[in-house]
Amino acid sequence: MVSRSAAFLNREFRRIKENTSFSVGLVDGNIYTWEIIILGPEDSLYENGLFKAIMVFPEKYPDSPPKFKFISEMWHPNIDKEGNVCISILHEPGDDAYGYESVSERWMPVRNPESVIISITSLLDCPNTDSPANIDAAREYRDAREIYNRKVRRLTQKTLE
């Protein structure tokens, strides 16, 4: 018998394959682990880059959020040095103990893998420096933008090699 989460993911995987701004595939045929390639957003430092990532879904999906991690090297305020993405929609549902996020900003079962990928793609071009996962990148983004821009362009070019 197929679990509820696997049924959701199978349906989403079939639907999402039609998107043109990213591609998805299963890692070792596992519906809970997706390999994603995001095309960098137009008119951004990431434009035309091909950024590899992994999205891992818990057994409790869609009640609990997936984890999203870039495999491609990234320099971004909201992506830590290991590639983990810090974005509100991937935080567990419910109240934020620190009071920074409203319940509506956090994970909700109505969200889906496509909305996660689109939100992360948007985050690439519009970082949230008030809540950084990479403090060095956030500082550089705020205080030394030209150096930041050069690093990002270099890493974007590296995704094409």
Automatic annotation (TrEMBL):
Residues 4-161 form the UBC core domain. The keyword Nuclease does not apply. InterPro entries: Ub_conjugating_enzyme, UBC, UBQ-conjugating_AS, UBQ-conjugating_enzyme/RWD. The active site is at C86 (glycyl thioester intermediate). Gene3D superfamilies: Ubiquitin Conjugating Enzyme (3.10.110.10). One of its GO terms (molecular function) is transferase activity. The keyword Nucleotide-binding applies. Keywords: ATP-binding, Ligase, Nucleotide-binding, Transferase, Ubl conjugation pathway. Belongs to the ubiquitin-conjugating enzyme family. This is Ubiquitin-protein ligase. It comes from Pseudoloma neurophilia.
